[in-house]
Queue: 2 jobs
Job 1
Amino acid sequence: MSLQRFTQDALSEWMRGKGPRSDIVISSRVRLARNLSGLPFPMLATSSQSSDIVRRVEEALRSDNRPAALDKAELIRMDDLSDLEKRVLVEKHLISPHLAEESRHGAVVLSPNEAVSIMINEEDHIRIQCLFPGLQPQEAWKLADELDDWFERRLTYAFSETTGYLTSCPTNVGTGIRASVMVHLPALAMTQQINRLFPAITQVGLAVRGIYGEGSEALGNLYQVSNQVTLGQREEDIIEKLTGVVRQMIQHEHSARSRLREISLTKLEDRVHRSYGILSHARVLSSKEAMERLSDVRLGIDMGLISGVSANVMNELMVLTQPGFLQTRAKQRLDAEERDIRRAGMIREYLSMKREGQ
Amino acid sequence: MQCQECGKRPATLHYTKIINGEKMEFHLCEVCAKEKGEQMAGMEAGFSIHNLLSGLLNLDGQFAEGQPARSASSSEGLRCKTCGLTYSQFSKIGRFGCSDCYKAFAERLDPLFRRVHGHTTHRGKVPERTGGKLRIRREIERLKQELSARIQKEEFEEAARLRDRIRELQAKLDS
Ligand SMILES: [Zn+2]
Ligand SMILES: [Zn+2]
């Protein structure tokens, strides 16, 4: 089953290539929410209407001259997946928890390199998502726009001249666009500047949230910045504003890193190497500690303080050490304690492997 | 930064909302945000809509294809005739039932859109295949703006060219 390809590797193929500003920006994503005209939104759709939507998308995909990005793309039905397989797709950010757990006749179209994932019967009939490594929201928008045009030639969307693309939630109406950038901001967090930065970002109509926290924390100093407004602004302007703000965040993070280097290099070196040591030798690691240590080591690599490990390894471990992946590897259900032991083992093994070979 | 609601957990959601024309800032933890029912950017599954809805609505079979939903009784206020969702149900769950809800609740939506987006009218992409006339109207609007700018700068030759182009498009629109 080719599904294995999607659940075995932590890093999507698109992430292995280096994107611009990848020392701070992990990835850029653009999502377009679309609904088919004449059918109720998934929340109220009957079972037969929902399966009809999947069928229509499938039919569109069977037509000739698919865009290159959808070449060899596969449609995967949620009902054909185990809970664990779904969880892994969620951990890779390819599908949402909502699609995995609550959709009826939910499905996803995945391109082989996982740069495109199209969710069907999530909160809206269709959600086109394009992911690029590094800071490339413009590129992600261009591709999503192209795929959207291609689908629109085959499917009729619910669209109003005054209100734009009609979506299930009023927070998405208009453009239906959600553009987001995932950033790693350890130096700003260490120097406590992040609290001052966030209000400024929200001032301009963007939202920031920590990701990867179980509950409320921003584990691993990873944050997602995204547009809030979807109505009344052009897509290009939304993308431009987001890109501009992220560029400023990058600058702030860079200057925080230089300041750290100037005023407390030894402390910083101690911190990142200490974390590296723990990751290389610990026998039990909670996901919280693992994420924090991985963030430290990643900073050490990006600042040239640690050599011999690639930054990609850190990205990969951040996903590989999530509960779904650990259990897939172990081929069994694991309780929290078991997971902490396996997590430590997996990180040790991975780091020693990457140090010797490749 | 601590969550402004509970003051205990760290705030991980930061956003602004325009309330009564005033910009308000919010800094919430995930738990309080969920409790407030905030639908945040990028926060996919806020709460279980399906469970909530099944309690609120008894729509089973009502949306069977082609079959009109119960007609609205005036005492219940606004109701979408296509999917049966009432405005009060919509305001509880924060989700529309179908694209016709937008028309059914139109009179109430502008203030909501203004609060969430600060705008009420779409200015972005128009579908290529089905948005034909709107695309033309947008183009005419754009050309008219350019036309008056040219006239102000006394660039009459270019203005005349634009005026002809507008006429062409206008004819296309009327045909
Ligand atoms: Zn709170
Ligand atoms: Zn409706």
Job 2
Amino acid sequence: MSDALSLHVHEVSVGYGRREVVRGLSLAPLRGGCVTALVGPNAAGKSTLLRTIAGLLPMRGRVSLGAVDLAGLSRAERAARIGFMPQSLPGGVALTVMETVMGALRAGGDAAPISGSEMQTRAALALDDLGIGALALETLDKLSGGQRQLASLAQALVRRPDVLLLDEPTSALDLRHQVVVMSILRRLAGEGRLVVAVLHDLALAARWADHVVVLSEGRCAAEGAPSQTISSAVLASVYGVEGRVETCSRGMLQIMVDGPLPPSAQKTGET
Amino acid sequence: MTTASPPLTASAAAAVAGYRRLLRRRLLLLALLVAAAIGAFLLDLASGASGLSLREAVMTLVAPDAASRTSLVIIRDIRLPQAVMAVMVGMALALAGAEMQTVLNNPLASPLTLGTSSAAVFGAALAIVLGVGVPFIPLSWIISANAFVFAFGSMLLIQALSRARGAGSETVVLFGIALFFSFNALVGLLQYVASEQALQQLVFWTLGSLGRASWDKAVLLALVLAFTIPFSLAAAWRLTALRLGAERAESFGVNVARVRLWSLVRVSVLTGAAVSFVGIIGFIGLVAPHMARLLVGEDHRLFLPASALTGALVLSLAATASKLIVPGAVLPVGIVTALVGVPVFMLLMFGRRT
Ligand SMILES: Nc1ncnc2c1ncn2[C@@H]1O[C@H](COP(=O)(O)OP(=O)(O)OP(=O)(O)O)[C@@H](O)[C@H]1O
Ligand SMILES: [Mg+2]
């Protein structure tokens, strides 16, 4: 892995049909070795941005990994470097967890296909890593919401890509699993990988991320270290809630939300 | 990054061992399906109006020199091509249904329910009644080529609709049913202007019957299967990944648009071929994949072969029944497929262990 892994988002505009969702977005470089939390209200364009970086949507602007423009990479090259976990898994699928993770390894048709037993081993280890080895033979459909999310995460992690784009990896998880997943993300970043995770829980972002990007209506409302980005001003202007952000005795950010601001007090945005 | 995998932990080893057991069990089920399909094929061969027993039928095949002239003719020229055709049509329709259900992400998809079969019949009818066909195709192939072109066209339409935002699987099926009725109406229109002889052919198609099976048709269908099945199997992992959603498959490095397109080409070839040789036989393409899914899950390396085998099994059983239900008469097998398929399907659905 290159030491200077960095992801650059420059003047990126993306939309669906005529409607532009992300507008001329430029971000400070996202660094390998860091966990970046992408936060923002519903429909801010977080998922859209991740999809764009993953190369799944046509866009204007430039996304590059180091000096390499992602638009110039072949599908296989991109898939080898970037792992993407979408927000949800489809229902009604009669695949076992193990099979879905093996599919993640095999479906891309890599230049050097791995053997069947190596594929099984790697899939099982990826599950074990997330503590869901015991679910290996469960059908996807029979899992709980949180278990599905962990299975979905395993599909993204098993390929061991340099860049991980995770759309809400913790939204359905209990307290313990949230912490388990976040510490796994920290470990992956510790190996030099670049991790971007969409999080709705600002406390989780404040506690576990090195870098926070606040997205609002397709634009970057704030970016930087958690202590610089998560503030009562951002809570008010971006989320429309009244809240306080304080530092606790152990030096951690504490976020307290007191209630919604009246609509008149919110920043008015275009639809 | 290391490519060699680290040593297995105990729980990972348990997962691998468990998976291998599951795989072995499913391979065994696949082997049982093969045996059942062969059994049904022999049963089909042994039944018929002339009252030749299974033993006589098999003896005729094994030692044709010792067999009587009539039984030789009955077995070799009538029963065998029909039975072989039943196996292959069952495979073709089930495979087409299985791929459709995956690619369109729609459990209700099948050549019948989405109007593909009717489109193929209409294409064929155009060739027969009006002599309109795909240019530069030799006359003997025009009917099949037309069936394929119309099947493919209808598949493209359906695919475009499935991918339009907001079109749920029910909407797509409703559209398929609209196609079904439109093409049937158009075929009806053609029947109006058709000659006596062409009319007979059209009726045969809309009912679906193995009665016109012949060796050259069987050979053609075998070629179609031999040409499509390897490509289906080669795409197995990609199709499996597609079950997890197009975005996810794409992020694994799958070219989803290409997988979909080639899959729909295979579906159209299989449906077009099946329809142009035996007409519309419904139900197989819908039910066989569901039965296969209950048996072996949706790893397409197993699911596709299991669907094909189930299709062969069900259609052979239906063909057998079509000769036994009304003594002395052979019903069109399309009528029987529903009668045989429904109870089997229900049994599997409700008998599923939780
Ligand atoms: N496939 C799509 N087609 C058309 N519009 C879409 C599509 N996906 C998202 N949008 C629109 O784009 C906007 C941004 O959606 P996006 O999913 O990126 O938001 P998000 O920030 O991820 O929200 P959430 O927190 O609810 O997941 C929304 O207004 C949504 O309606
Ligand atoms: Mg989202």
